[in-house]
């Protein structure tokens, strides 16, 4: 008898993540960019747009974006070997990413532009959504692009950048240390959009009738072996049913349990007969 | 007039994450351990247990766990400065973590032990849950501890380690590259447990009555200025109501819109009068 494992993986990439793109505004860490690539690809997302940091922000070798070939930017803005080392099987996301001179350029043509931020303040949006609510909101989208915009590692999205966004998202986090690593924030956002397309109902949980059947069988077995002498039958039946139903048995597990109980009962009968 | 930002943060750390602990089985990367600390703390989780890698797995300077003071282990198993650099304000999680000689020791006393894995196979659990389903399942727990167990970066949880776990969790991911970085997997797990305690209903979305009021006002305004001459009134009313209701206005946004329309109408009236 082989064990049947029902995997929770969706058969196809969640359609949602084909409609989303990640925009990194002024990221400075090559390892972070690599980690973002891996986070994205693990959730079936491939579209990455990077707005390179200003030269003064970071380093002097960032060439101006306009009039510079993407290949040149790819090899000069970040340490490509560091990106690829952290990207692990996801370096293709970096190899295919686009560079934009401004956030406006990066998100042009989007249906919605979602800025991720924890900081509040004037002009920093009065209505904030969680990644889950956003993912559910956009789950029915069948065309267009949602841009998910993340700011610089240290300073996050500036108020000017956030003003370009049409919506604002805040990842729920702990009050005493709510700061997430850039790639971790991207991972959660992509995960939520991916998850919106996943059927995550518990794996083939059996109907209560099956549980009842097993509970009755177990009850009778316990009665047979004299384990219930002092108990109140209704209470014991209810107890067995409740505990068993809580364990969310799948078909394989229910069948196995039933078989084991049947074997036990037969042993008991044989023993009684001997 | 000040802008009122309704933040989505819970007032207290989600109770769930006080009942959970992260167990790292044989992690080898100091940076990964630091990133795990940050991921945990950002989601209000502080309890970390590490089973150090076997000496042969990794490096020769790992001392035997038993009979070794935690402080010695903390300073010799990983490169502490690398842990702290990546942990960013979360180094206290590492400073307070426990070391265990085996997975059995690490999870002893737990109510449930959840192993995170993508690999399936004989003896690797027949029933798999997503992090979300698990978090919802345990959300009502008011005592006891749920151990969230993550394996080594390269090989994940071994079949023997998974056998110690009472449940199995698989993070939904892309079929072509489903491998998550260790700290990213921990981030998603902690996020789901944290999220289970968060009220993520959209921020103060106004009732449809408010939307109706604004839609009617807008309709009348459009009628006033002669913008509706060729339209079918019912259709236009329905259109305005539908579009406005879809934007999930909060109180501040609804009030602002209403005020602007009122101003526009008054301007129109003045203009007509002049």
SSE inventory with pairings:
2 copies of one chain form a homodimer.
Chain A: H1 15-18, E1 20-25, H2 30-42, E2 48-51, H3 70-76, H4 80-87, H5 91-95, E3 98-99, H6 103-107, E4 112-116, E5 128-129, H7 131-138, E6 146-150, H8 159-164, E7 167-169, H9 182-195, H10 208-224, H11 233-246, H12 251-273
Parallel strand pairs in A: 1-2, 1-6, 2-3, 4-6, 4-7, 5-7
Protein described:
The structure is a homodimer of 274-residue chains. With 274 residues, chain A is an alpha/beta fold. Helices cover 45% and strands 10% of the residues of chain A. Chain A is built from twelve helices and seven strands. A seven-stranded parallel β-sheet of chain A has the order 3-2-1-6-4-7-5. In chain A, helix 2 runs parallel beside helix 9 (182-195) and helix 10 (208-224) crosses helix 11. Chain A is elongated, with a radius of gyration of 27 Å. At the A-B interface, helix 2, strand 5, helix 7 and helix 9 of A face helix 2, strand 5, helix 7 and helix 9 of B.
């Amino acid at each position: 008898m082989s064990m049947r494992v029902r995997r929770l993986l969706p058969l196809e990439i969640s359609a949602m993540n084909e409609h989303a793109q990640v925009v990194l505004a002024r990221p400075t860490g090559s390892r972070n960019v690599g980690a973002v690539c891996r986070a994205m690809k693990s959730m079936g997302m491939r579209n990455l747009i990077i707005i390179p940091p200003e030269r003064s922000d970071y380093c002097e070798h960032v060439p101006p974006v306009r009039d510079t070939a993407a290949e040149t930017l790819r090899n000069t803005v970040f340490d490509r070997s560091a990106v690829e080392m952290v990207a692990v099987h996801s370096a293709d996301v970096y190899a295919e990413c686009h560079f934009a001179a401004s956030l406006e350029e990066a998100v042009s043509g989007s249906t919605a532009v979602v800025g991720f931020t924890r900081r509040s303040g004037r002009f920093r949006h009065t209505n904030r959504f969680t990644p889950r609510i956003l993912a559910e909101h956009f789950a029915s989208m069948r065309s267009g692009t949602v841009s998910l915009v993340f700011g610089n590692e240290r300073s996050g999205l500036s108020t000017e950048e956030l003003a370009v966004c049409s919506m604002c998202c805040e990842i729920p986090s702990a009050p005493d240390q709510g700061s997430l690593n850039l790639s971790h924030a991207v991972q959660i956002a992509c995960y939520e959009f991916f998850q919106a397309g996943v059927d995550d109902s518990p794996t083939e949980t059996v109907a209560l009738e099956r549980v009842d059947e097993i509970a009755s069988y177990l009850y009778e077995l316990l009665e047979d072996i004299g384990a219930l002498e002092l108990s109140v039958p209704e209470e014991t039946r209810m107890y067995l049913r409740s505990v068993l139903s809580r364990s969310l048995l799948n078909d394989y597990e229910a069948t196995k349990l039933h078989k084991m109980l049947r074997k036990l009962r037969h042993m008991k009968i044989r023993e009684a007969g001997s």
